[in-house]
Every structure is written in C-alpha cells, then in structure tokens.
Amino acid sequence: QVQLVESGGGSVQVGGSLRLACAASGYSYSNYCMGWFRQAPGKEREGVAAIDRDGSTSYADSVKGRFTISKDNAKNTLFLQMNSLKPEDTAMYSCAAAWYNSCASRPANKYNSWGQGTQVTVSS
C-alpha cells in the first residue's frame, strides 16, 4: 500500500518561505511522476507543480519563478520550496503520485495516490 505523508506547512507572512516535504512508503519514487496540488476554501483543487520520472518539472503560471519542485529518489521524498509567498497561496497542499512517465498537465483524477495534506497560511 502506497502511503504519502506531507510535512512542512505552517503560517508565514507575505514574502516569506516554506519548504514542504512528502515522504513515501510502500513504493519507489523513481517509478512514478509526482505532483503538488492545493485547495483553498470554496475553490477547486489546482495543480501547482509536477515532476516527471526523468526529473523534468512544470509549474502553474501563478507560482512560476517562486516555487520549486524537486525530489530525492534515494530518500523517497518530494519537496516543494515556496518563496515570495502571497496571501493567495493560502491553501491545503497535497502531494500525489501517478503511474506515468510524465505528470505535466495531468489532472488530479489521473493520480493514483494522495497524501493527507498540509496547511499553508500566508498573512499580510
């Protein structure tokens, strides 16, 4: 059974930074592409960033230049470095794994496993 556990969320002021982590057990990251999603209250879930099996990355326009997705296959851990945070980045952030070579532009319903989420709150 694949399990994903996020950590690193919290409260930060505008312009601050957070680093989210997603630890996996039960499988190897090298066999999956991975993504970070977020959902704010009253809004639909949106894809934030994705990383393919070969390490290629893609980002939502709203976070380009501010967020960086990366992974450590040896440690089975996915990361999301978030800089220059804005109030509109406030949301529950979740990681997900998909049994594909690429997760670029892949919708949420194509992912196989999800973490429980970690809350990020950005205040002005």
Please describe what this structure looks like:
By secondary structure, this protein is mainly beta. Helix content is 0%, strand content 49%. It has strands spanning 3-7, 10-13, 18-25, 33-39, 46-51, 57-59, 67-72, 77-82, 91-98, 113-114, 118-123. The strands form two sheets. Strands 2, 4, 5, 6, 9, 10 and 11 form a seven-stranded mixed beta sheet that branches. A four-stranded antiparallel beta sheet has the order 1-3-8-7, with no helix packed on it.
Layout of SSEs?
Blueprint: E1 3-7, E2 10-13, E3 18-25, E4 33-39, E5 46-51, E6 57-59, E7 67-72, E8 77-82, E9 91-98, E10 113-114, E11 118-123
Parallel strand pairs: 2-11
Antiparallel strand pairs: 1-3, 3-8, 4-5, 4-9, 5-6, 7-8, 9-10, 9-11
Question: What's the short version?
Answer:
The chain has 124 residues and is an all-beta fold. 0% of the residues lie in helices and 49% in strands.
Q: Kindly state the number of beta strands.
A: 11
CA(first)-CA(last) distance? 41 Å
Q: What coarse outline follows from CA principal-axis ratios?
A: globular
Largest sheet: 7 strands, mixed
